[in-house]
Amino acid sequence: MRYSEQFMEHIEYAFHAFCKIVLRHEAMNAWRDLKRKEEREISLDYLMSERYFEPSAMDSYFERQDKPTVFFVLGKEVIVDDERLATALSRLPELRREVLLLYYFVGYRDEAIGRLYGRCRSTINRRLKAKLVEAILKFRFDR
Fold first, then answer.
1. Distance from C-alpha of 96 to C-alpha of 89, rounded to nearest angstrom
2. Is-contact 105 99, C-beta < 8 A?
3. Is 99 exposed, middle or buried (0-12, 13-18, 19+ CB in 10 A)?
4. Is 47 helix (H, G, I), strand (E, B) or coil?
5. CA 88-94-95 angle, 5° bins
6. What is the span of the domain harbouring residue 18?
7. Does the pLDDT at position 97 exceed 70?
8. Which domain CATH number covers 91?
C-alpha cells in the first residue's frame, strides 16, 4: 500500500515536531537537574578556601579498643576483642559458652555442634537462641 507524497510529508513534519518537543523537554530536565545539583553541592575548592584542613578520613573500626580475651574451644583459639562481650561470655556456664563460640565465632553449624555434644540439631538451635538472648541481656545490662 502506497501513501501519497502529501501524507508522507505530513508524517515527516509530525515526527520532526515530536522530536523537537522531546528534545526540548529533555533539555529542560537536564537544566533543572544541573540547577538542583548546583544548589545542593559545594565545591571542594570552596571548602578549602574557607579554612585549611587536609581532606582525609580515619576509620577506627578495625582498631582494637579493649584488651582481647582468648577462649579455647575444642583446641581452637577464639579471640573476643570487646571486653564487655568477653565478660558476659565468661559468666555463662562452660557448655553454653562453647556452643555460642562454636556457632558464632568458629562457624560450626547446628548439626556439627549437636554431633559433638550428643544432641539433635533442633535442641542445639533452640538452646543457642535462648542462650544468645541471655548473653545479650547480660552484656547490655553490665555496662
1. 9
2. no
3. buried
4. helix
5. 115
6. 5-50
7. yes
8. 1.10.10
Decide if 28 is inside a domain: yes
- Give the number of C-alpha atoms closer than 13 A to the C-alpha of residue 25, restricted to the C-beta side: 6
Cα of 81 vs its chain's centroid, Å: 21
Task: Give pLDDT tens digits for 15-45.
Answer: 999 999 999 999 999 999 999 988 888 777 6
Residues 46 and 75 in one domain: no
| Alpha helices, H only, the chain | 5-40, 44-50, 83-91, 94-101, 110-117, 121-141
As for how many domains the chain has, the answer is 2
Q: Does residue 86 share a domain with residue 122? A: yes
The model's pLDDT over 102-140, given as tens digits with 9 standing for 90+, comes to: 888 888 888 888 888 888 888 888 877 776 666 666 666
Residue 39: count other Cβ atoms within 10 Å of its Cβ.
Answer: 7
